[in-house]
Amino acid sequence: MPNKDSSFADFTRSCDKLLTATEEHVAVLPSAGPYRTALQQVFADVRELKAHQDSLLANRQEATQDLGAIIAQCQEAVMRLRAAVRADLGPYSELLVQFGVAPLRPRKRRAGRSDPQPPAPEAQPPAVPNA
User: Fold this and answer.
1) Is the pLDDT of residue 131 over 60?
2) Which of 59, 61, 83, 103 has the largest CB neighbor count within 10 A?
3) 122 in a domain, yes or no?
């Protein structure tokens, strides 16, 4: 039997091999019959649940795509509603903050610089080598 870390494919292959081997040697293994039948029933349930899991995975992926599309529609509706609120209240209204919209505010004047920039260093002529 495969260990816990093996894949589902390894597990199913192992079960298939065991069932096939016991079917081939039914005459030699008389006491294994009820256990083989129990394994066949449980293994059929495993395959059925795996098929169900695979279909759920496909459904999840489809739901994810649908969710992405509806979120895009919702974002567009949010933009339109906020634009309508901005149009009704005006671009300077402080009530816009409650709707998640930044109002236009007058800019503050910058104070003059307190330290003037130092003058640029004077360019010196290149040194001429003595001949």
Assistant:
1) no
2) 103
3) no
Q: In the structure encoding, which two tokens stand for residue 107, read together?
A: 């800019």
pLDDT score of 2 more than 60: no
123, part of any domain: no
- Is 105 inside a domain boundary? no
Q: How many domains does the chain have?
A: 1
Task: Return the closest-CA partner of residue 105 out of 118, 90, 117.
Answer: 90
The structure tokens listed for 18 are 């065991």
- Residues 54-65: what's their mean pLDDT? 92
Q: Is the pLDDT of residue 85 over 90?
A: yes
**Closest to 47 (Cα-Cα) out of 12, 21, 1:** 12
How far apart (Å, rounded) are the C-alpha atoms in residues 31 and 34?
A: 7
The answer to whether 43 and 15 are in contact (CB under 8 A) is yes
Per-residue CA distances from 17 to 12, 40, 64, 72 (Å): 9, 12, 38, 50
Give percent of the chain with pLDDT exceeding 70: 81
Contact 111, 117 (CB under 8 A): no
Alpha helices (runs of H) in the chain, residue ranges in sequence order: 8-24, 33-89
- State the residue range of the domain holding 52: 8-99
